[in-house]
Structure prediction request, 168 residues.
Amino acid sequence: MRAPLLAAGLVAALAACGHVVEEPSEWEREHEARLRPGEGSVELPPYPRDPQLIQFAVAAASEFRFFIDSASLSVEKDIVRYVLVARSPAGVDNVSFEGMRCTSGEVRIYAIGRDRAWTGKPGPWRTIEPRSLQRWHNALYREYFCPLRVPPASAREGVDALRRGGAR
Prediction:
């Protein structure tokens, strides 16, 4: 376990000295989960059903409506996981299973919904940008799931925040 930490420290030291740091090798990318401590495996939830969807407000002018599947909401350490449904005015659903890391303000997509099944593999953690086009992540982060960078104490507390229109 010390080797990856030493290697990371060496890369940081070289970068600080102005050296060019190479991108990780294909082997490093394939074995990233073993090289860095992470979340472990994440089980995909059942596909969302309309009766379990809770709509939440997004401040940006958008014709889309946004929902969280209440049955999918979970909280583990500082990560809130949920199924997001973005519904177009024509009634087409864009579905994704995501995680939000409250302490660092990051979001990750684990899988995309297609034909009522999950597809794809987990993407990287990305910083939630305050003025991004994906304003629903900002709304979820600041108003519902991670006010003051603190996650809900439980899934029930997260669901209650959605139903109330925001965390207390």
About this structure: The beta strands are 53-56, 65-69, 74-76, 79-87, 93-101, 106-114, 117-119, 126-127. The two ends are 41 Å apart (CA to CA). Residues 1-22, 31-37 have pLDDT under 50 and may be disordered. The domain at 50-164 is CATH 2.40.128 (Lipocalin).
